[in-house]
Amino acid sequence: MSKLIETIDLVTNFYTHEGVVKALDKVSLCVDHGCTFGLVGESGCGKSVTVRSMMRIIQEPGKIDGGKVLFYPGNNGSETAIDLLQQSEATMKALRGDKISMIFQEPNSALNPIMSIGEQVAESFLFHRKKEMSQQILMDMDASISKANPLKSILKALYRLAATRPEALILKLFSKTPLLKSWENRLHKEAMRRAVEIIAKLSIPHAQDIARRYPHNLSGGMKQRIVIAIALACNPLLLIADEATSNLDVTIQAQILDLLKDLKQKVISSVLLITHDLGIVAETCDRVGVMYAGNLCEVADVKDLFSEPRHPYTRALLNAVPRFAHEGELESIEGNVPNLVNPPSGCRFHPRCRDAKSICKDAFPESTKVGNNHQVACFLYTEKSREKS
Amino acid sequence: MNKKQHPRIRELKFTLSRIFRNPSAIIGFSLLFVFVTVAVLAPYIAPPKYAHNPYLMPHKGYSQTPKPPSSKNIFGTTSGQYDIFYGAVWGTRTAFKIGMFVIGVALIIGVCLGIISGYYGGIIDEIIMRVVDIIFAVPLLVLTMAIVVAFGRGLDKVMIALALVKWRDYVRVMRSSILTLRELDYVQAARVMGVSNFTIMRKHILPNGIYPVLVMASMDIGSMVIVAAFMSFIGLGAPKGYADWGQMVALARNYIVGPVDDPLKYWHAIAIPGACIVLFVLAWNLIGDALRDAFDPKQRRR
Amino acid sequence: MTTYIIRRFLFLAFVLFGVSVLIFSILMTFSPERRAMAYVKSPQQVKDLPIIVKQLGLDDPFHIQYFRWIRQVSSGNWGYSFVAAMPVWDAFWYYFPITLELNLYTIPIIIIFGIWLGTVSGIHRDTWVDHSTRIFAIIGWSLPTFLFALIILMFFYGYFNVFPPGIIDDGFNVWIRENPDQFKRYTYLYTLDGLLNGRPDITLDAISRLVMPVFTQVVVVVAILLRVMRSSMIEEISKDNAITALAKGADHHTIYFKHARKNALIPVVTVAGWLAAYSMEGSIAIEYIFNRQGIGWWLANAAISLDLPVLMGICLFFGLVYVIINLILDILYAYIDPRIRLN
Fold first, then answer.
1. Spelled out in words, what is the top-level CATH class assigned to the domain A3-112+235-285?
2. Which chains touch A (3 or more CB pairs under 8 A)?
3. Is residue B87 part of a domain?
4. How far is the C-alpha of B37 from the C-alpha of B81, rounded, in Å?
5. Is A113 close to C246, i.e. CB distance below 8 A?
């Protein structure tokens, strides 16, 4: 399989009053075309920061301080790679929501309370499909048999311009001036039509009616579907689901997951799923990455990870999951998640690790290949440690 | 990190360090420090001439034209030959008296009613809040004027009138912060454990809910001094010759425009008491601003 | 929506009733004789005070007097103003246009300027734009209106000799009074009437006298709006829905001005009520200092000469203004926020 997006040694810091929070320390992961990648870990381990860094939507006081985010939009290998961290804000703007899109954890706050559902979904089309929609409007106008009048020809000219150069200055000028900005009416109508279409596609009943409503009169699950609709509007190559189901009821959680699975097969190429629920990972993902305190500890195919966990943290995590067949007390991981202003030296897990050795305190373990597509960042598996022991 | 300290002390230290990282707090507190010093040491800085009433400004002669600063009157004299330096020094005491009294009384009334209203709710809440709504309908200055006219003139009447109107603000703020606190888990937990209402209020609600009120109060001290100064300015507050900044501005009112050849000749008569008012108010506003930033949970841990 | 408006109407009627009771209670702290003074129109009548008290029933129980008073007030009998030397009701309409004119100019400037500066300051948080705006706000907030007005007057009138105080040049004033047929008072606003009568010189003069008061009022009052707008803008920008919009592909401009600003305006609408109150308070000092015979000037002078009926009348008037402004704000609120509109 070919790569879709890849991070190399991604470093993100948050500059707070208490000090620099080293939220991500050299995270390297790779999502392939057509793959569902799960990113797991405790809260605060940097899962959300990772994906937000990938999209470059880290908020103040956070800053991406190093690494690369390589994106391979073509389906044919690495020659088309672009480093998202080097791109201009305008390029990123064009990519976000079009090629890469994101679903958020909290559907209640992810939607703007004072814009109607339809408007919010339609925005995606207005941002990314202006050209296409203008062409369609032009075709519709040509097809209609009403008489030509001067106003209409001006309108046509504007849409012809929008169909070729949507960024043209004169269009912006028109859109900013009161009264004149009504030239966009057809565009808005078309975007709205598409919005209703996509809402209906997500098996939401009465899409037409829902589009006219506001977020506060929808249920949590419904809102999350709308958030998904916004993300899917432009058929992205990569859909990032940031704890998309964590705050929902179990039944609705299942519905949303089924929906995502279904969409994955039909529409989207790849999904990057962030969760702290290992059950969801086992059920939906192809590959899994385990994160701890801003480090990626282990990446493996889902079966390998569950059958043969290598990293001590992964093992501890799997042991902490309640199981039906299991008897006796649940195991927990001793100690606390470290404060990332002063993270432990060397491997960040060593203060809590049962198998910690002296080297773990001094050096950062490089990621090593331990099997078929299975990588671990732990000294238990590196050549260096083998030589020593 | 020192783990032995009581969490409240640690929190206080953190808050203080946050407050004093803010330049506006440093300016504000320094200004306030100067004013406090002047107010405390007033009898030594400007020894009173009339032992029975030190707030009476000494004056030599009755000439209406202000005199520029000289060696005798280092800030000059204002209309009626009152010594501006003396007035500025003792006016500091007046300003503190006004601010502390008005805000103190208004806080006590407002916080008590706000707690009762927010915590018990129901019919008591309804009555208190409707009364507050009514008092809110008339602007502070207008209502104060009406009360002062009804009670009679005088600085003490102005202070009482202001306190009688100002409490309305604190009831609303206190009530709303209690309404949010009341539903929080730790208050619910305390209630489930059978802690008495009074103890819950004293230990859990008041210490956490009072911050917004205190921030507001620290800013209001300044604005109360402004209102009182205006009342003195138009002649409803302090009488002529009383060491009050507003009254001193009033004395200079007719001399804002000097003779034709030197239109700004009497600038000192208005600028000095004016600067006192502005700096005093500025000090409290800067402090209030810094307190608000420091207590704002959203900005706190950035 | 209709029930919402009806509820608001009932509430406002209640507030108006409460204000009238409150004002009447203040009035009742006076002895009947002193209240009788309000009905005395000439010095000769003073010796008849006890008769007036009896005639008007000024020693009746509270509620009887209250309802009598309300009847009088609603029929336009608000007492007699010594300061204006005419009945309060007539004097009110004489002074009102002056205050209205001042606020017609200041309020739009305050709103536009405050929202704009607050937005800019919130977007560019912790930059020099933000810092200077905040410094401006805190200084404006610390300036007593009357003092600032005096200093402005001192410099612009005293030193530069531009922008004189008053409402209109004395020459114009006399001419207008003597030639009512040549200068028709359509609106009683000098700036507008000047234009309507084809006398731009009068408009210009009136405007030049408005510059200082308007400037003073704007500087002092805009600070509140600016601060609220700034903090609510900062809050909206950091909200999750702003990130959703960003992830959707919106640029920062769209997020600030389409997503965040409308949300940020909701808390601003709530403080707009205070804004009105501060403007009213500000006009008292401004009219007093700049010698503009409006409601505020009248109120200050009535307070000095203990002209009680005026104070009562103006309190009632401000109560009414408050009620009307709040009604407008409630409707505006519902217009901006669908959560209120649709519930």
1. alpha beta
2. B, C
3. yes
4. 26
5. no
Handedness of CA B223, B229, B231, B233 (dihedral sign): negative
Q: Which residue of B17, B18, B296, B302 to mutate against A (max A Cβ within 10 Å)?
A: B302
Burial class (CB in 10 A: 0-12, 13-18, 19+), B230: buried
Please give the residue of chain B at the shortest CA–CA distance from C310: B146
Listed by start position, the domains of chain A span 3-112+235-285, 117-199, 319-388
Cβ contact A112–C263 (<8 Å): yes
A327 and A313 in contact (C-beta within 8 Å)? no
Q: What are the boundaries of each domain within chain C? A: 2-87, 93-164+210-330, 168-208
Please name the residues in contact with C95: beta carbons below 8 A apart, sequence gap of 6 or more. Answer: C84, C293, C294, C295, C297, C298
Provide the domain count of chain B: 1
Provide the token pair at A385. Answer: 């440690």
Shortest CB distance from C30 goes to which of B133, B150, B230?
Answer: B150
Dihedral sign of CA atoms C12, C14, C15, C17 in order: positive
Which of B149, B218, B264 has the most C C-beta neighbours within 10 Å, making it the best mutation to test the interface with C?
A: B149
Q: Please give, rounded to a whole number of angstroms, the shortest distance from the CA of C243 to a CA of chain A.
A: 7
Residue range A158-167, pLDDT digits in tens: 888 888 887 7
Say if the Cβ atoms of B149 and C319 lie within 8 Å: no
Chain A touched by C241 (CB under 8 Å)? yes
Chain A positions in Cβ-Cβ contact with residue C262 (cut-off 8 Å): 114
Taking an 8 Å cut-off on Cβ atoms, the answer to whether B301 and A61 are in contact is no
Is residue B302 situated within a structural domain? no
- Superfamily of domain C93-164+210-330 in CATH is MetI-like (1.10.3720.10)
Quick one: tokens of B180?
A: 């949010």
Tell me, what's the pLDDT at A297?
87
Q: What is the dihedral of CA A238, A242, A246, A252, to 10 degrees?
A: -30
Question: Which DSSP state fits A91?
Answer: H
How much is the pTM? 0.84
Q: Whole domain around residue B147: which residue ranges?
A: 40-295
By Cβ distance, the residue of C154, C300, C303 closest to B257 is C154
Q: Is residue B248 part of a domain?
A: yes
DSSP state letter for A168: -
What's the CA gap between C318 and C278, in Å, rounded? Answer: 12
DSSP C163: S
Retrieve residue B169's tokens. 């603000």
We report the CATH number of the domain holding residue B149 as 1.10.3720.10
Q: Is A173 exposed, middle or buried (0-12, 13-18, 19+ CB in 10 A)?
A: exposed
Distances from the Cα of A89 to the Cα of A131, B122, C249, C260, angstroms: 20, 54, 10, 20
Mention every residue, 6+ apart, whose C-beta is less than 8 A from residue C182: C197
Query: Cβ of B148: how many Cβ atoms within 10 Å?
Result: 23
Q: What is the per-residue pLDDT across B156-198, written as a single tens digit (0 to 9) for each?
A: 999 999 999 999 999 999 998 888 888 888 888 888 888 888 8
Q: Determine contact: A336 vs chain C, CB below 8 A.
A: no
Check: complex ipTM more than 0.90: no
Question: Is B21 within the bounds of a domain?
Answer: no
Structure tokens at A100: 């890469």
What gap in Å lies between CA B227 and CA A10, rounded to an integer?
Answer: 58
**Residues of chain C where predicted confidence (pLDDT) is lower than 70:** 38-41, 342-343
Q: Is the peptide bond before A61 cis (omega within 30 degrees of 0)?
A: yes
- CA C280, C286, C291, C292 dihedral sign is negative
CA distances B166 to B144, B216, C315, Å, are 9, 12, 16
Give tens-digit pLDDT for B238-264.
Answer: 888 888 999 999 888 888 777 777 777
